[in-house]
Design brief:
Strand content: under 5%
Number of strands: 0
Order of helices and strands: H
Helix content: over 70%
Largest sheet: none
Number of helices: 1
Shape: rod-shaped
């Protein structure tokens, strides 16, 4: 395929001038310009519609992802909460057991002191 080039373009302009005349040529040029402008706008609107659809899909996916992340975070928060509650229960139980042991040791110490005083 060969390109038109400058000589071919000049030939086309001369043919258009002969066929349409000098009065109709500016009107024809305007009409071609408007047609190209409308074609460009239509193409742009089609691509923007596709972009709008893509953007809507992206927003929907982002929303789904956010909901999924929120669910994961909620599950993680629940798991962390359970873990903390378990640790608190264990610590309270440990403190209770330590208190009982101290009380028993205190009772045994006082009993030993009483036995030493009797002896």
């Amino acid at each position: 395929m060969s390109t038109i080039g400058i000589p071919g373009l000049i030939l086309i302009l001369i043919l258009a001038l002969v066929l349409f005349g000098p009065k109709k040529l500016p009107e024809l040029g305007r009409a071609v310009g408007h047609t190209l402008k409308e074609f460009k706008n239509a193409t742009r609107s089609l691509t923007s519609d596709d972009d709008d659809e893509d953007e809507a899909k992206r927003k929907e996916q982002a929303k789904d992802t956010t909901v999924a992340k929120t669910a994961v975070i909620t599950e993680k928060d629940a798991f962390d909460r359970e873990k903390i509650e378990r640790e608190i229960r264990e610590r309270l139980e440990r403190e209770r057991i330590e208190k009982e042991i101290r009380e028993k040791m205190e009772v045994e110490r006082s009993q030993m002191e009483k036995e030493q005083q009797k002896a």
